[in-house]
Amino acid sequence: MDSRALPATSTLRKRLIYGALLSACVGLFGAVGCGGDSSSDDGNGNTSGSAGSATAGSSNGGTNANGGTDATAGTTSPVGGADNQTTGGDGTTPAAGGDGTTPGAGGNGTTPGAGGDGTNPGAGGAGPAPTCGATGEACCANSVCNDGGCCTGNRCVANNATCGNNRGMCMDGACANCGGDGDPCCQGSCQSGFACNMQNNRCAACGKADEACCSGRSCSAGVCVNNNNFGGATTCRTACGAPTQDCCANNQCGTGARCVQGKCEACGAEGEACCAGGQQGGTCTEPGLRCSNQMCTACGADGQACCRTGNQLFCNQGLDCGVDFKCAN
Asked: Which of 52, 98, 191, 264 is least surrounded by CB atoms within 10 angstroms?
């Protein structure tokens, strides 16, 4: 073997080793440089991955980026969707005048307005003015009927008409077979100037002092006073029972007066105390008045309280009683 070939071979080997080391260093530096660029974008969501995910709702944009998971564009969040109902819909609270359980004025609910058809009806319009004396109507005070009619059963029959049953014909205010002094009563009624004694069903003179009161609690002398606190028999009194006079027996006073500490004082007129009796804590003696808080006050006119007779509320002609119990057009 030639000994001079050895140096050449040794030099070649050294060159190959140096080249491999240099390549390794270059490759290592390149790898470190790429790794640094990737880590510097971590968490910013601004790399190539974030762009794809933000617009398409996908997480496939890149391996290192976090943009895909933070994207919101791909998730639907409807604003103003169908769950928000429009105003004025068909809800459970009807519009004014609807058919709800609380109707408007004049409705047909359980608590109707004025003139309604409910279980607690308001008063209708004006109540009928009380009338008497005409054929078929109630007899007026002291059993008087118009145009010569006769009072029988507290109803007026026409002159020259039958009084019914065996009571005979009506002639100028008197039935032929009943109603006169000592005659049988005409179904509880008598001719003018006589009253029916219910104990014997006979007619007797009435209206004078210490006589029975005539029908309608009328007296020609004195005032009509109850004989006791239970109603029934009445007597015309002249020495007691009128305002400023002493109270009669059993603390009784005549119509238009009440007994206060043994004396009769006026009652029942406008601005006066209510008289005893009635369903509303007292009575008033004049039309157009009602008892309210123990005082007689005007009623029935526009803006005034509704008048009341029994359970009927009414107002003057042309006015209605509203749900506030006031009279109005």
From this structure: 98
Phi and psi torsions of 52, nearest 5°: -65, -45
* Residue 192 exposure: Cα atoms within 13 Å on the Cβ side: 15
pLDDT of residue 279: 67
Amino acid letter, residue 224: C
Q: What does the alpha-carbon distance between residue 117 and residue 166 come to, in Å, rounded to a whole number?
A: 45
Query: What distance in Å separates the CA atoms of residue 284 and residue 257, rounded to the nearest whole number?
Result: 10
* Contact by Cβ (8 Å): 321, 329: no
Query: Whole-angstrom Cα distance, residue 217 to residue 324?
Result: 35
Structural element, H or E, at residue 38: helix 5-40
Task: Decide if 104 contacts 113 (C-beta within 8 A).
Answer: yes
Q: What angle do CA 318, 278, 251 make, to 5 degrees?
A: 140
What is the longest distance spanned by two Cα atoms in the chain?
A: 189
Q: How confident is the model at residue 232 (pLDDT cuts 50, 70, 90)?
A: confident
**What confidence score (pLDDT) does residue 127 get?**
44
Q: Residues 9-23: what's their mean pLDDT?
A: 62
Report helix, strand or coil for 322: coil
192-203 pLDDT, tens digit each: 999 999 889 999
